[in-house]
Amino acid sequence: MAVGGRTRVTGYLVRRTTGVLDRVGDMSVIALEGFRRTWDVRTWFWEFVQQCWFLARVTSLPVLLVSLPLGATVALQVGQLAWQLGASSATGGAVVVGLVREVAPMASALLIAGAGGSAMTSDIGARNIRDELAAMEVMAVNPIHRLVTPRLWAASTVAVLLVPLVIVAGAGGGYFFNVIVQGVTPGAYFDGAVSLLVTSDLLVTLLKAWIFGFIAAIMSCYFGMTCQTSPVGVGRAVNQSTVVTFMLVFAVNYVITMIYFLAYPPRSM
């Protein structure tokens, strides 16, 4: 019995591992195939413009509404501790540095995945149910080139463009609490951020946002193209794509941040 139980467990683990590797391989194929025809801009440019407009429309206001209270909350928590230590002027530096290095790319990626990515998955999943993807292949039109490529570039582009909105809105929320409520001078609020930030911080933040947008798009397109051909299958695909995207974004963010801090250690004030 014990030997049989171990055999079943081993077989289950092998099947699960094989299934995960198959999915990773399929995701990689879709991503590489989506980038392969990037040079043929004429075939996907207008779809790219439509997707950019859609993503910007559904994420711009939410990202502002998230960033404003988030910046104020960070300023509240850091400001109380800094006030007890007699360093209230350092609150602005902590808020802006945190927004630029971590909050901005993460907020833009999560909103792209939650608001835009779910719509991408449901759209492509609905096309899959109606056999539109198969019909495109019959007409010698590659559905990955026509549907996935513009969505990859649109999600990456909009994710990068959302970063300044997050930084400005979050810094505004922190400014209100730190300057208006606590009475710190505006010069001291921004001076701490200027002394801590470097150009590479912003460049890495934009790179993070681009990578996170790409991850959100490829997960959304993959789960939409491979969902079960039923309304329930589309709903499950939307749920799976959002969860997997969140997990990958946090994991990749940790890796990029660790490599960046090893290569460029933070400087002191």
TrEMBL record:
<feature type="transmembrane region" description="Helical">
    <location>
        <begin position="197"/>
        <end position="223"/>
    </location>
</feature>
<keyword id="KW-0812">Transmembrane</keyword>
<keyword id="KW-1133">Transmembrane helix</keyword>
<feature type="transmembrane region" description="Helical">
    <location>
        <begin position="243"/>
        <end position="263"/>
    </location>
</feature>
<dbReference type="Pfam" id="PF02405">
    <property type="entry name" value="MlaE"/>
</dbReference>
<keyword id="KW-0472">Membrane</keyword>
<feature type="transmembrane region" description="Helical">
    <location>
        <begin position="152"/>
        <end position="177"/>
    </location>
</feature>
<dbReference type="InterPro" id="IPR030802">
    <property type="entry name" value="Permease_MalE"/>
</dbReference>
<protein>
    <submittedName>
        <fullName>MlaE family ABC transporter permease</fullName>
    </submittedName>
</protein>
